Amino acid sequence: MEKVGFFGGCFNPVTKAHLDLIRQVIKQENLNKVYFVPMGDLYPKKDLICLEHRIEMLKLAFEEDDKMDILAISNQNEKMHAIDTFQKIDEMFPQVQRVFIMGSDNFEKIKKWKNAEELMKNYQYIILNRNQGKTKEISSTKVRQNVKLEQTIEELVPKKVREYIEQKNLYK
Description:
The chain has a single domain, classed as HUPs (Rossmann fold, 3-Layer(aba) Sandwich). The chain is built from 7 helices and 5 strands. It has helices at 16-29, 51-61, 82-92, 104-107, 116-122, 140-148, 159-168, and strands at residues 3-9, 33-38, 68-70, 97-103, 125-128. Helix 1 (16-29) links the parallel strand 1 and strand 2. Helix 2 (51-61) packs antiparallel against helix 7. The longest helix is centred in the first third of the chain and has 14 residues, at 16-29. The radius of gyration is 16 Å and the shape is globular.
């Protein structure tokens, strides 16, 4: 049976840290594939740019890596909770072993989420420690701050993502 990971997040923007961590998880957990599942536009997060741009940056970030893909479940006008997303994934991928990947910061909050007990009981998780090696220096927040301050983001995001941010004048 295939083992597939689902990595939810804002990816505002996707960073080299996201990609490095997921490549490690794919190897360590022997995953056939990982789907990045971006939050919709109604997700309550400061400075969140539209889903369309975030999806485009994800495509650019791993267009040459067939072990990573995008699963855009949320849309611009729909607020979804984790349980709704997980249930949709269950329906879409019934024939695979599903694991949900999330950062330790989010996993700590899961007890406060809608249907928390069901989320804890019925789903398998891989928890990422944000402070692993060089990845702790890289965050989407740092990318946005650097862009606003007109500082380099070259070490923080893949080249094609950086070019897209510059071309579309994002995060200014």
